[in-house]
Design goal:
alpha/beta, D-Maltodextrin-Binding Protein, domain 2, 3 domains, 23% strand, rod-shaped
Length: 300
């Protein structure tokens, strides 16, 4: 049995007149008669009691009518969702992010504006190891990732900056340099032990400027985990300045670095040839958004 059979049956059940039902369907009455006979033969039951002057539903027809209408309604909803999904009006987008990417508010801003414009699209987000995100996106498991540069990307991916930031130094409160507001010179940190975040570019740049190889004793993962290690006195850390306004952890003091700022960016990475209409809409929004500049100033 096909959907057209259900439509023919419902039309006749509503009109209880072959000629009027056939007219509403745009077919000839004899064609409708044959289709109804086909349905009854398939089901093995009479759905209509027919005389020369009247057409009425049988008890079986009454029950079948409720189910036929439900099927047609579900199909109409499915068809509508399919068409809307094809236009990118409904669907789901999977976001992945490195922990430090959430502190500047750029991801939240993108998600909030997108939900207002496209309320039928569900956005899911989860923190993932930064090194895993490019491959997850390239293989279709994540749609858009938010990472800190620099990092190598597969050729199939593109990137767009959503947040511009700079690095500062996180120190235990009892560190000698924490008592001064003077920016720290990289060379003065040569004897320190370093707790490195996932993105180690800032740490190695401090070492390059100070002409030493950083003594990295731990890479605990998220920035919160990094700052916890700092708060326990295990070492110092080179971290994005945006965390100074977003995170307050006891026994941690933030200080700026002397000399030119060591720049850091959060970028959105995505497939260059994205096939999903909903994801393409978010990519377009991101591409037309200038990178935010939180401008947090490191302090005590």
């Amino acid at each position: 049995m096909e959907l057209r059979h259900l439509r023919y049956f419902v039309a006749l059940a509503e009109h209880l007149h072959f000629a009027r039902a056939a007219e509403s369907l745009g077919i000839a009455p004899p064609t409708l008669t044959v289709q109804i006979q086909d349905i009854e033969q398939i089901l093995g039951v009479r759905l209509f009691a027919r005389t020369k002057r009247s057409v009425a539903l049988t008890a079986a027809g009454e029950l079948f009518l409720a189910e036929a209408k439900a099927v047609l309604e579900r199909f109409a909803r499915a068809e509508s969702v399919g068409r809307r999904a094809g236009r990118g009006e409904v669907g789901r987008i999977e976001l992945g992010y490195v922990g430090s990417a959430i502190y500047g508010g750029a991801i939240q801003d993108q998600a909030s504006r997108f939900r207002q414009a496209w309320p039928g699209i569900d956005i899911r987000a989860r923190e993932l190891p930064m090194a895993s995100l490019p491959d997850l996106i390239d293989h279709g498991q994540i749609d858009i990732g938010f990472v800190r540069t620099p990092m190598p990307l597969p050729r199939a991916l593109r990137a767009h900056a959503v947040l511009k930031d700079q690095f500062c130094v996180a120190l235990p409160a009892d560190h000698p340099a924490s008592m001064s507001d003077v920016p720290l010179h990289a060379a003065d940190l040569a004897r320190d032990r370093f707790i490195a975040p996932e993105q180690q570019a800032g740490t190695h740049e401090v070492g390059r400027r100070g002409r030493f190889v950083p003594n990295i004793i731990a890479v605990p993962g998220s920035l919160v985990a990094v700052l916890v290690q700092v708060s326990l006195g295990a070492g110092i850390a080179v971290v994005p300045s945006v965390v100074t306004a977003a995170l307050h952890i006891p026994n941690v003091v933030f200080r700026p670095l002397a000399g030119p700022q060591i720049q850091s960016e959060v970028v959105a990475i995505f497939r260059a040839n994205e096939p999903a209409p909903a994801v393409k809409k978010l990519i377009q929004q991101i591409m037309h958004s200038p990178a935010a500049m939180p401008g947090a100033a490191p302090g005590g």
